[in-house]
Amino acid sequence: MMQLRSGHVPLNSYLFRIKKSGSRRCELCWGIGRLEIAETVVHYLFECQAYAAERYDMDKALGRYSRDLKSIMASMKRVKELLKFVGRTARFKNTLGDSIGDVSQLEPEEG
């Protein structure tokens, strides 16, 4: 979660900045319509059309908070929904492993 919040997550925008990628662009958007869009955290979480189906469940669960990363991070329940989305996309499977979307180890929210 800290990587997503800080932007230090293996998306092309960050990887380009640390010279681990030759481009900032979202390869999925490039492949869909030759769109030259930077693959940032905001783009990945809330905009990339390649993940629209995976995002649908997150949007339903988060309601009015579905596009507000700060509000999502303020609640363990919303964080769990965000992590489920990340797991469904499998975007970080090669770099971070299979457990990225597993929220079973997170403690339930109090109150």
Overview of this protein structure:
- It is built from 8 helices and no strands.
- It has one domain.
- The mean pLDDT is 88.
- The two termini are 22 Å apart.
- The longest helix is centred in the C-terminal third of the chain and has 14 residues, at 76-89.
- By secondary structure, the chain is mainly alpha-helical.
- 53% of the residues lie in helices and 0% in strands.
- It comes from Laccaria amethystina LaAM-08-1.
- This is Reverse transcriptase zinc-binding domain-containing protein.
Secondary structure layout:
Elements: H1 2-6, H2 12-17, H3 27-33, H4 41-47, H5 52-62, H6 69-73, H7 76-89, H8 93-96
Which short descriptors sum up this protein?
Reverse transcriptase zinc-binding domain-containing protein, mainly alpha, 8 helices, globular, 111 residues
Short description:
This protein has 111 residues and is mainly alpha-helical. It has helices at 2-6, 12-17, 27-33, 41-47, 52-62, 69-73, 76-89, 93-96. 53% of the residues lie in helices and 0% in strands.
Poorly predicted tracts of residues: none
* Termini Cα gap: 22 Å
The class by helix and strand makeup works out as mainly alpha
Count of alpha/pi helices: 8
Largest sheet: none
What percentage of residues falls in helices of 4 or more residues? 40-55%
User: Helix and strand string, N-terminal first?
Assistant: HHHHHHHH
**How large is the share of residues in beta strands?**
under 5%
For the residues shown, what is the average pLDDT? Answer: 88
Which word captures the global form? Answer: globular
Overall structural domain count: 1
**Count of extended strands:** 0
